[in-house]
Amino acid sequence: MMPALNTASPNTVSLHDHALDGEARRHAIECLLNCYLREYALPRNEADLDYRAQDLPMSLRQANGRCIGIRLPGGRLVVRIDRASLLGRCHYISAPYFKGSNQSWRPLDAQELASLLCTPLSGAERVGEMLQQVANSLQITRTFLRHSRPANEAADSLLASEQHQLWGHALHPTPKSREGISHADLLACSPEVGAHFQLHWFKVEPTLMRHQGEDPRSTLRQLSGRDDAYPCHPWEVARVLADPLVQRAQEQGLIEYLGPLGQAMYPTSSVRTLYHPQMPYFMKFSMHVRLTNCVRKNAWYELDSAVALTRLLRPVMSELAVQQPGFMLMPEPSATSLDLSALGTLEEAREVTECFGIVYRENLPVADRERYRPQVAMALFTWDQQGRSVCRQQVQRYADNIGLPVEQATLNWLDAYAALMLGGVLYCLFRQGVALEPHLQNTVIGFAEDGLPGRVWIRDLEGTKLVPEIWPAERLSELDERTRSSVYYSAQKAWQRVGYCALVNNLGEAIFHLANGSGALEQQLWGRIGDLLHVQSMRLGYPQPLRELCAGGAFPSKENFMTRLMMRADREAGYTLLPSPLAIIEQRKQA
């Protein structure tokens, strides 16, 4: 929250900002260490989660909790934690300390830590870019903390959850990096500060506009108040105006820049997808801005694939309503852009198509928003600004409503959520050959009257892929070759992505926060997931990945740290195999 400027003295403001900066640094360090632990140190047995050396720094000897130690090429790293999950996810309560050969212990800031972890793994150019992005993410986090506003969940629970994810992805080295965005533009258009803003519009010759699927022009008219206008995101408009083909169209009177106008839209947690409670669609805009790992433009073939997948998956959605009631996909029935191919080369025209590309995702009906009070999962399985797990407050309200002990309420809550989410995701993969991407930002949870999860929506068809054995090329004959290749994953890759998103990114974070540092409760929660996986495996005919999982097989975990460091496309991300918490629990039972 921002300080009250009329009542706080300059010194108070300074102390407040200093405390917020400290929280931003602590969170940056936590992201870096958790990524490095999970992707590198733990798989190589270079970390000790209960480190008891005699020569600990004095400040760590006197603190509560336990220390972890990490061996590095140039020395040792040690930091104190108050909890470590079965998946190696830690919460840190001290600065990290490093001791090189023949040196004394010294505390590290986020930049020093990033350099120490990254430099042995890659070349100078890659490390330099990574360090810039770490610094960028840290500075932006500081800005968001200073300008954040309290959420008004009662007015619109979905919007409140979209716009108050201050920390972002907990297992990403640069969760808030946004390259090339000015301070003013950051505050004007970022969800973390409760922004809402007008789009930038162009008067366009009608023959230049192209749409696929449903015709969304009535929505554009509703937003702009005009029949001849087409929008782009404020962060994209400078690129559009500098484009030679657009300039050529302006000279010929085919396009005229109108500036910002019309109704304001609200950015969601993905930043580029915008929401208005009265509009029938979310609108996913192109931005040539790198957010975390990827430049968030709508590639021309993604405009094709979003609408095509919606059409192809309609029968799957109908079957889900019967087989997995309460689990739904959010369709993307329309895409639009401008076609300037008559004025230039195909390559030049595709650049314009991507700059102006918009994907339209169906909004949740007003009745569903009012009844189920939906929230994005990432806004629940995270910390608030006071360091409390948000989902614990949700569970406490359910426990109070029903009159249950909190521990039993927590088990019930996870049962309800995991049955919906895992049931639907696994059914889609193993019965339909559809690999969803149910990570925390793509998962929306709705609640029954008693407070238990009662609905799950999975969104963003950009990450949805098809398994070619079930979806051969002849089933996709209407797609051109490039678009068709973009929607395919091999069976192995489909399982890696689904397994990671559902079990590690989603349920791993859910259980970390629901357990609240209790090892006994964490084991019970993972035990419930194990029981559910056995039931799903039997129901789905014992597919091999689930058989192996139920037998204690490793969990696939996407390498966000190494993917960013090595400058790989997200689609080419590698996977680390994490020891299964189900197997760890079984081993402890037998010990």
UniProtKB/TrEMBL annotation:
Aerobactin siderophore biosynthesis IucA/IucC N-terminal domain residues: 158-380
Molecular function (Gene Ontology), one example: acid-amino acid ligase activity
Biological process according to GO: siderophore biosynthetic process
Pfam families for this protein: FhuF, IucA_IucC
Span of domain Aerobactin siderophore biosynthesis IucA/IucC-like C-terminal: 413-572
InterPro entries: Aerobactin_biosyn_IucA/IucC_N, IucA/IucC-like_C, LucA/IucC-like, PvsD/AcsD-like_thumb_beta, PvsD/AcsD-like_thumb_helix
Record-stated family: Belongs to the IucA/IucC family.
Protein's recorded name: Siderophore synthetase component
Organism: Pseudomonas deceptionensis
